[in-house]
Amino acid sequence: MPDKHYSFFGAVERSFNKAAGFTKWESGILEQIKTCNAVFQMRFPIKRDDGSIEVIEAYRVQHSHHKTPCKGGIRFAAEVDQDEVMALAALMTYKCAIVNVPFGGGKGGIKINPKKYSAYELEKITRRYTAELIKKNFIGPGIDVPAPDYGTGEREMAWILDTYGAMHPGEIDAAGCVTGKPVTQGGVRGRREATGLGVFFGLREVCNIKDVMEKQGLTTGVEGKRVAVQGLGNVGYHTAKFFQDAGAKIVGLAEYEGAIRSDAGLDVESVFQHRKKTGSILNYPGAQNLPKNTDMLEMDCDILIPAALENVINGENAPRVKAKIIGEAANGPLTPEADEVFAKKGILVVPDMYLNAGGVTVSYFEWLKNLSHVRYGRLGKRFTENLNAHILGQIEELSGKKVKDNERELIMHGPDEVDLVYSGLEETMIAATHEIMNTWKSNPEIPDMRTSAYVVAINKVGTSYAELGIFP
Ligand code: GLU
After folding, report:
1. Which residues are annotated as catalytic?
2. Domain map of the chain by residue range?
3. 373-420 pLDDT, tens per residue?
4. Looking at the whole model, is its pTM more than 0.85?
5. Within 6 Å (CB) of ligand 1, which residues are found?
6. Protein residue with least CA distance to atom 9, ligand 1
7. Quick one: fold of 38-185?
8. Are 280 and 303 in contact (CB under 8 A)?
9. pLDDT band at residue 467, thresholds of 50, 70 and 90?
């Protein structure tokens, strides 16, 4: 059970402070980078389907304005509170800085368990929340741009856009007020799986670094790695699938009702379908049930991927974790105490604020698409295909040989939107991995990869503030 006294924002501050000493910034700038610039706490009533009135508690936090707009998801969860939203907003600032996405960090939260509300009630809550943001100038393509997070998805983003658009008639860039929209409403292809794909690209790159893998006692490459994933939501599901497609073995999967394991490997899609059909991940044919879902965090595997909520591995259970690498697909799944344990044990923790940056990276692509009012690939695809056909024709003529049909298709193919989004994301994650690893290598005093990621983020945000001349 989550510890009620645990301050998530406090944990982010502690990790920040640990890294700040490895940077050159004076304390005033560090304080400005760390602090939350604006916190909007609201309450509004909605009428439930049974006619009763309920007061809803909700937040939007803008952690940093060093770049605008602010950016970050909106979470629907019963555990939402101000401390949590502040922490998540801060992580967004650092995340965006690391992957060079030119936004400040933001986050929103509505304190509801969405499973206990009808679609109609959720729509009313989402639209009213958006209206409150509009009233206080807390949303807009150049101000603050929400996105999906835990408990929200494309449907909620479409409601937000519709509400914003209705109250900003004629605003030509209105579609850029929110990302993670359905493709028919200005969304970008590839956004839905972006976080999971980014987690995969990031961990794959780490697995390709020979000396890092040797240190963990592992061979290079993803193929054959034993992977366990906690959470089969949007992030966990896609992460597990990308690992399975790349030849990794999914040996454990957990959801809140329980966990399953199989040394022979689980098929992610059929486990997902099994859960949809039976309402539970448990009793999957051929797999072993684990009594508590948290047992899966302690199972023997190469890579453990918590992809649900914060604070699931702490000082208490960390000593029992057997994984060699932990990839934080969720935001804040490890506490600073767990970090200490893993640093001592030599377990590599690949930190959230870079590893799960795929979502916001592709949100950035979506926002750019909205501002440019054109689908990626529309202008260049045909031109590239014609050019490739011409080059291929010349090669065949000069060599007197024919290229195989499947090769022809591959060579000719001009990029579609999804190809460009995937390739932009891949490049982003590979570059970020090396930037963090190189910073870590350049200073042997830096204790872990999270601290190194913070150093990278602090330096970027610090430079931005210093160059803006905000401190005269
Ligand atoms: N909610 C996601 C995150 O935590 C995505 C944010 C976004 O796309 O703006 O990174």
Report:
1. 107
2. 38-185, 222-346
3. 999 999 999 999 999 999 999 999 999 999 999 999 999 999 999 999
4. yes
5. 71-73, 147, 149, 179-180, 331, 356, 359-360, 363
6. 72
7. Rossmann fold (3.40.50)
8. no
9. confident
